[in-house]
Amino acid sequence: MTALAQLAAAPDRAVLAAEDLSMFGTDPWWLVVIKAVFCFAFLMVTVLFSIVWERKVVAWMQLRIGPNRHGPWGMLQSLADGIKLMLKEDLIVKRADKVVYVLAPIVAAVPAFMAIAVIPFGPSGNEVSIFGHRTAMQLTDLPIAMLYILAVASVGIYGIVLAGWSSGSTYPLLGGLRSCAQMISYEIAMGAAFASVFLYSGSMSTSKIVEAQHDRWFILLLPVSFIIYIVTMVGETNRAPFDMPESEGDLVGGFNTEYSSIKFAMFMLAEYVNMVTVSAVSTTLFLGGWRAPWPISTFWEGANHGWWPMLWFVVKVQLLLFFFIWLRGTLPRVRYDQLMKLGWKILIPVSVVWLMLVATVRALRNDGYDFNTLLLSVAGAVIAILLISFVVDIFRDRSAKGAGAEPAPEPGPAFDPMAGGFPVPPLPGQTLPPVPRRRPRHERELVVSGGPDTQSDGSQMGASPSDGKEADGA
After folding, report:
1. What b/e sequence results for 303-339 when a residue is b if at least 16 CB atoms lie within 10 Å of its CB, and e otherwise?
2. Alpha-carbon 214 to chain mean position
3. Does residue 49 lie within any of the structural domains?
4. How far apart are alpha carbons 190 and 233 in whole angstroms?
5. Where are the transmembrane segments (predicted)?
6. Average pLDDT, rounded, for the chain
7. Could you check whether the bond before residue 295 is cis, i.e. omega within 30 degrees of 0?
8. How far is CA 105 from CA 46, 162, 326, in A?
9. Phi, then psi, of 111 in degrees rounded to 5
10. Given CA atoms 150, 153, 157, 158 in this order, what sign does their dihedral have?
11. Is the pLDDT of residue 397 over 50?
12. Contact (CB, 8 A) for 145 and 83
């Protein structure tokens, strides 16, 4: 082999060495079944615990009692809710497409369970022994494991869209389309946040990404990517304050309005399983995965060996689930236009610019430049851009004030919102007719006990109190 061929083959060998996943696929079939059952049981138990935890934490935040009847301290409340939903009457709307109507909850729930297959609960080596067989604490891994997670998450969107379409009703259809638009919009920024992790770890394999964080977690190296992913994972799971597709207070449920019994329970199960999945992905990508936190890992060498890594992984996932609950009990629901503006005009541009910066820094690092010099240069460039934009905004505001306020546009012709048979909002340039039952502000007056409060009273018609006395005297 010539020297040129050796140079050409060297990068390929490096990639193959980095993506060596030979430890997976060697387990006997019964051990694979045990791992699969464990992953399913882990999700189900975490969901049952999360529902109770959410209701108790929100009750604590709002100075309420919370569930305290089913089981000790109300810990079996979510199990009682599941039994109640299974025993409720299962209704199917007459106008529904029955086949799609029944398959939609399954399509939404099954992909939510599939993503956990590539999440590492511990080191990828033969770390633990199960019935005398040494194995890794992970069901399987792929060279493109993160793309697999994005793919199965995208399939779950079909369940929501099909649920709204197959219900045979207008409002579930609108709720399904709105949820689809929201989830697709936030997946774009989520993918850009993933790309930054791929650049730093050099791999899309989940086990290799965790191994790349052996000395420093990616939350410290890529804080902007972590923040972007935290926002997008809340929007991806349709949780408050981004729960417009299921805003029960004003939409009755959105895409799942026409569902009941076990099919409705499957939609709720898919939501909570997705919460656990995105929390596990966040832990794997940014929080060191199964690695012990910094103070523990420094003085205890066995913290990252044996069964202990599973403890650190579960603790990190539960902290992120608490973050979900904290948001729901703290922030009000945003408007849909604010949600889409945040996704398209803020998160996507910021994630793309950040990805370009990360790629530039990685390319310069590969060329031998010092990391501290690169960090200072990038920070200086960002500060300079912010200062320039700040100065431009100041001069723009001054020029707007100097030019004076623009005259208000003349109101357009009034229109009938019920002309087409359905109430429609006004288009730009059109104005709604005034509401007849509401009096103008200058005609309103404070109504006191026993005083006049309608236009039929004498004081509103121009009669004076003396006129009333003269009439009584007459």
Report:
1. bbeeebbbebbbebbbebbeebbeebeeeebeeeeeb
2. 28
3. no
4. 8
5. 33-53, 99-122, 142-165, 186-205, 217-235, 272-290, 310-330, 342-361, 373-392
6. 82
7. no
8. 20, 9, 27
9. -60, -25
10. positive
11. yes
12. no
Structure tokens given for 54: 């959410």
pTM: 0.77
Residue 115 neighbours by CB distance under 10 Å: 25
Closest to 357 measured CA to CA, from 118, 235, 195, 137: 195
**What number is the average pLDDT over the span 354-379?**
82
Range of 286's domain? 87-384
- SS3 string, 238-298, reads CCCCCCHHHCHHHHCCHHHCCCCHHHHHHHHHHHHHHHHHHHHHHHHHHCCCCCCCHHHHH
More confident residue, 257 or 251: 257
Place of tokens 């394999």: 205
* Greatest mean pLDDT range, 24-33, 249-258, 406-415: 24-33
Is residue 252's pLDDT more than 80? no
Which residue in the block uniquely carries the two structure tokens 């964080």? Answer: 213
Mean pLDDT in residue range 405-415: 59
Question: Is 102 a residue whose pLDDT tops 60?
Answer: yes
Please give the Cα distance from 99 to 93 (Å, whole number). Answer: 12
422 belongs to a structural domain:
no
Report the number of distinct structural domains present in the chain: 1
DSSP assignment letter at 418: T
Secondary structure class of 2 (helix, strand, coil): coil
pLDDT digits (tens, 9 = 90+) for 258-300: 898 999 999 999 999 999 999 999 999 999 999 999 888 778 8
| Assigned domain for 396 exists | no
Sign of the CA dihedral 128, 130, 132, 137?
negative
Return the structure tokens found at 126.
């033969």
Read off the tokens for 261. 């019994």
What SS3 string covers 33-89?
Answer: HHHHHHHHHHHHHHHHHHHHHHHHHHHHHCCCCCCCCCCHHHCCHHHHHHHHHHHCC
Q: Judging by beta carbons within 10 Å of its beta carbon (0-12, 13-18, 19+), is residue 11 exposed, middle or buried?
A: exposed
Please state, in angstroms and as integers, the Cα–Cα distance from residue 142 to each residue in 33, 34, 125, 201, 203, following that order: 18, 20, 15, 15, 10
Query: With contact defined as beta carbons under 8 Å apart, do 48 and 38 qualify?
Result: no
> Has residue 269 been placed in a domain?
yes
Q: Are 193 and 124 a contacting pair, CB within 8 Å? A: no
State the Rg of the chain over Cα: 30
Rounded to whole angstroms, how far apart are CA atoms 161 and 178? 9
Q: Which burial class, exposed, middle or buried, applies to 111 when counting CB atoms under 10 A from its CB (0-12, 13-18, 19+)?
A: buried
